[in-house]
Amino acid sequence: MSMIRDLRAAVRPSLRHPLRKTSTASPYANYDATRDPSASTAVVDCAVYRDGRRVDDRACLTPRGAMRQVRESGGFAWIGLHEPTEAEFAGIAAEFGLHPLAVEDAVHAHQRPKLERYDDTLFTVFKTIHYVEHAELTATSEVVETGEVMCFTGPDFVITVRHGGQGSLRNLRHRLQGEPELLAKGPSAVLHAIADHVVDGYIAVADAVELDIDQIEIDVFSPPAKGSTRGADTGRIYQLKREVLEFKRAVTPLLRPMQLLSERPMRLVDPDIQKYFRDVADHLARVQEQVVGFDELLNSILQANLAQATVAQNEDMRKITSWAAIVAVPTAVCGVYGMNFDHMPELHWKYGYPMVLTGIIAICFTIHRTLKRNGWL
């Protein structure tokens, strides 16, 4: 049985934050305290921030050292991890008293965006979206690439767990370190910065996807190139629709968590920071409307493309039917004169043969002109 299942089985409702009080009922009671969780290669950055500035102390470069500094001198710790395993994350989970259910979600990933509260900790899941550049959209093109960022926010710590090759928070950390007045607001300032960073990524991807949809729309409604068919765009439209659906799965579930963070008073969220969450929620709502519009527009484009393909097929069938009607005239006449009878009209007349040919040509020409006038040819 995995370590996470053992922790879940041992957890009790009375579990409290270990930085405040140590309980013998802790699910991490059997954890080896002599093993330093900083030995994990999943830790990409670890720091303590006090009064909005990063503490320049080598002792703060490990999760255990950061926790000790926070206990002794205040401030908060920000620990960043990338795709940790259960064993790598168990030590940090024990040090900071993270709930086993949230730990399991953070390790195994593939979660929908959500906001959950476990005692004194907020657990937030964000889906990151990255636009994949491509020279030309094809029926197999990957348009968006998804990742995940999980954020544990406590009274004096922030732990971020990132999954996927995109969505790095390194630049975000450096930018926040240049705004000490914002970092002085505590862990909720980091949570807001991550949410704002993710939603800004959504806006950029939405703008890029809109250009792809515009190009598809132009291709569908422009005159087809010689030798091409309308149905050739169907695969590209369907592929883009699948990518937009993936985008929608990342954006829509995040609306409710952002509304909660912006509207409901929370002890772990600074009131000044909560105002900024409203701006993030507004931007997210705009992106959500765009994505829903993309989905509906692609449905219309797909239906129009299929309708055009059907019309083209009907035109081809009309042309085939028209030529079949023209060819039926000489077929019928030749069929009649091919019968072996002695007494037939004009059979022994020397002008019978050219008269029949002239009649066939005249009838075929008349049929052709009639069909051409009616738009069948």
Task: Give structural notes.
With 377 residues, the chain is of the alpha+beta class. 54% of the residues lie in helices and 13% in strands. It contains eleven helices and seven strands. A seven-stranded mixed beta sheet has the order 2-1-3-7-6-5-4, with helices on both faces. Helix 7 runs parallel beside helix 10 (271-337). Mean pLDDT is 82; it is low at 1-35.
Share of helix, binned: 40-55%
How many DSSP E strands? 7
* Gross geometry: rod-shaped
Q: SSE order, as H and E?
A: HEEHEHHEEEEHHHHHHH
* Major beta-sheet overview: 7 strands, mixed
Radius of gyration (Å)? 35 Å
On the 0 to 100 scale, the average pLDDT is 82
State the separation between the terminal residues, measured CA to CA.
74 Å
Main sheet: strand order: 2-1-3-7-6-5-4
* Tally of individual helices: 11
User: Which structural class matches the secondary elements?
Assistant: alpha+beta
- The low-pLDDT segments are 1-35
Strand content: 5-15%
Describe the structure using short key phrases.
single chain; alpha+beta; 11 helices; 377 residues; seven-stranded mixed β-sheet; 13% strand; 7 strands
Question: What's a concise summary of this model?
Answer:
The chain is α+β, with helices and mostly antiparallel strands. 54% of the residues lie in helices and 13% in strands.
